[in-house]
Write a structure and sequence with these properties.
Largest sheet: 3 strands, antiparallel
Strand content: 5-15%
Distance between the termini: 130 Å
Shape: flat
Helix content: 40-55%
Structural class: alpha+beta
Length: about 325
């Protein structure tokens, strides 16, 4: 074997060994997992759901902040209702809904006074969700229907007035156009033009015979012994009516923010006293400063007790008013 042939075999063996080394799997130490990669970030699609206690806490905070019905979706009324959907027997929930019902009704009254039908409909929905069968809800339904009908009537009247105005304009344009009979009409109407003999004659005749009002027919006085008709007796018979009388008054709490600023005012309330002597259908007639003392006055009036009104000795429900003054001594 020659030297060149042995050299070629050696080179071939060397190349085969190098190729085998390159094909062998590499053994390297596994990389340590990144700590940040183990943290799963919350996605935007995953909603945050509050627990029932957290919802109740948010509802109470909204109540303390006077966010009774606003803003939509984050107010005390809707939050309390959300708690009731999860747990109707949650502690303190029923009392909170009873207390918030008249406050939501005040906001509804304001929307009715402002003739804001859309806002009134939203607030009526909240009131109905609290208690669909309450007297407050039924009255609110009637008032909302009345407002809706009133707005519809106003729109219909405005449309009718617009149509009448356009028709009057078209009539004036038509009258202003010349016609063959216009000359004849003008000749006959000239007899009654200002300053004409016919006009003066008509004026003098009206002055000569003025219209006098008819003399009142004297009513003869009743003759003694003459029987009085039964209808007269019915209308003159007095009915014994006694208004409701308060028997237990609860003084309202003074708002801390008003006390610290030395703000004084009053709240005039209209309410209904039931035959049992309780108060219901409470609403604020007016207050000064507006909205500052309203809630405290209503909460106090809800605890008042009355001796109900009586008609001929029979108890009956009656509507009355009272004014609560907020004064610092």
């Amino acid at each position: 074997m020659s030297f060149d042939f042995r050299k070629s075999l050696l080179m071939l063996a060397l190349l085969t060994a190098l190729s085998a080394c390159s094909d062998a799997p590499q053994t390297t130490a596994p990389a340590k997992p990144d700590a940040a990669a183990r943290v799963v970030a919350p996605t935007a699609d995953a909603p945050i759901v509050d627990s029932t206690p957290e919802l109740m806490r948010r509802a109470n905070q909204a109540f303390r902040d006077d966010r009774i019905v606003d803003p939509a979706g984050d107010n005390a009324t809707e939050l309390f209702l959300a708690v009731r959907e999860r747990d109707p027997a949650y502690p303190g929930l029923s009392e909170a809904l009873v207390e918030i019902m008249p406050l939501a009704n005040f906001a509804f009254d304001s929307a009715i006074r402002n003739r804001d039908a859309a806002e009134a409909a939203r607030l009526h929905g909240l009131i109905a969700r609290i208690d669909a069968n309450s007297a407050i809800t039924q009255i609110a339904s009637s008032r909302l229907a009345g407002l809706t009908q009133s707005i519809a009537d106003e729109q219909a009247d405005a449309e009718a007035a617009r149509v009448a105005t356009n028709a009057a304009k078209r009539t004036r344009v038509a009258d202003a156009s010349p016609s063959p009979s216009h000359a004849v009409t003008g000749s006959t109407s000239s007899a009654f033009a200002p300053g004409s003999n016919a006009t003066r004659a008509a004026s003098s005749s009206s002055l000569a015979s003025p219209v006098r009002p008819a003399a009142a027919t004297p009513v003869p006085p009743p003759v003694a012994g003459t029987p009085v008709p039964a209808t007269t007796i019915a209308t003159t018979t007095a009915t014994a009516i006694r208004p409701p009388q308060p028997i237990a008054k609860i003084a309202p709490d003074y708002p801390p923010q008003a006390r610290s600023r030395k703000i004084e005012g009053f709240v005039e309330l209209e309410f209904r006293v039931s035959v049992n002597g309780g108060t219901e259908d409470i609403r604020v007639v007016r207050s000064e400063p507006e909205g500052l003392f309203d809630r405290n006055a209503v909460r106090a009036l809800m605890r008042w007790k009355f001796k109900p009104a009586e008609r001929n000795g029979v108890p009956e429900a009656a509507t009355t008013r009272t004014t609560m003054n907020f004064r610092q001594s």
